[in-house]
Each structure stands twice: as C-alpha cells, then as structure tokens.
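Look at one such:
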Amino acid sequence: MLRLVETLARKFAPDFVRPHRYFVALARNRTGQRVTDGPFKGMRYVDHSVGSAYVPKLLGIYERELAAVIEQIITSKPSLIVDVGAAEGYYAVGLALRLPDARVIAFEMEAEGRAAIAEMAASNNVADRVTILATCEADGLKAALDGASGAVVIMDVEGYEESLLDPVKIPALATVPFLLELHEFVVPGISETIARRFEKTHELRLIWAENRSRDDFPWRTMLTSLLPGSYIDDAVSEMRPERMSWYFASPITASGETTGHTG
C-alpha cells in the first residue's frame, strides 16, 4: 500500500512540490526551451532529454569541458558529422546549426531519441541535412565513413566503443578525428584499448569532467531559497556514475602534424 501511495504521489503531485520537476519546469520557462549558453546557444530544444541530464543542456553547460573541442571542430569546417549515440540530438542538431554546409548522420538506438532528433532538427530548420538512423553496428559506421571526406565522428555508446571504434574493421577511422566518451565503468581498460588502437595514427587528448555547482543555476525563486542547496546541485548535475573522461583524437599527417579533420 505504501508503494502505491508513493507511486501515485510521484505521478500526480504538482511540480512545485517535486523539487526535480520544479527545476526542470523553471528552466523550461526561463529559457523558452532554447539553449542559453555554450557552443549551441540559441538552439531550440525539445521538452525532455533521452538518457542524460536535461537542465544542463538548456543552460548550455552540458559537457562544458568539451566546449573548446567543439569550437575546434567547427573551425575545421568538416563536411560530415557522424554522431553515434545521439540521444535527442544535442550535438547532432547543434553542429548542424553551427555548420550550415555540413551533413549530419545521427545514429540513435532508442525510438524516443530518434523522434526527438527529428523534432529538434525540424524546429531548428536543419532537417534536410540531418539523417537519422537506428542502432549503429560496424558495417553501418563503415558505410557512413567510406568515401566521405572531411568527416568527424562523435561517439557516446556506453561501452560499445570497444566494438565500434576499431580501425581494423573500419579503416576510415584511421584518418578521421573523433570525440569519444569513455566508459571505464562499463568496460574496464577501454581507455588503454583505444589508445593502443590509434597510437600510430592519432594524437589523443584526454579530457576529464569537472564538477558542477549550484552557482551554475542562474535563477533564484522563493522555493529555491527554501530548498537545501543540494537540490540545486542536483539540478545542474549530469548524474554520472563516476567521473567521466573523453578522448579527442586528431589524425597525424604524413609530416607528423595533427589536423582537425580530413579532406
């Protein structure tokens, strides 16, 4: 009976008595569902996220450790972005906006995510340049990259990078830049595995996640002043199971230099 009462309370209680939903509703209202900062400032957003934190995306602080890398990718003007594990389209649609001459291929296994990418691509007027595909296997990634010049790969696949990010299976990976979220808690040793696979072809930069704090939440209301600060910390948290890291890998040219993209 107690579980039933708790379930009903979670389902029907208004947002103002449910701190997490209150912060989500407040962020939606104050931003008008547009990203307010970061590389994709101004992007129209859907009303939810898929498998990741929502409020940090509206604030433009989601994975902000990668902002400089994203700007580096944009500056290199790639003609193709392949986003594997695109969720609702933060990077896929955001990069389509920032790169008006580029095509984007977004792989997302969840139907909810694919629907959100389509909605967001349409609302940001980039749908004609965003191709949405389902689960990515090695042959699908190979097909996306084969014959493509000026490509960049972005990958967040919860450990499946061990299978996908393999230049033996997909030779084109040896010549393209990639940004990879590492999942050591899923596949222990994956960082070393990827480093070995690409040690002769890429320069790998390791990027570590930084802490978020209540100072990252820009709005204060009567309720936020009454709630413990830990609720605000949670609102801007990306809710990671451990401190995350990424590789940004730049191909090494014949002269020994690195390049932001091929082509």
The domain at 63-209+244-251 is CATH 3.40.50.150 (Rossmann fold). The beta strands are 80-84, 103-107, 130-133, 151-155, 178-182, 202-208, 245-251. The CA atoms of residues 118 and 127 lie 7 Å apart. The longest helix spans residues 19-31.
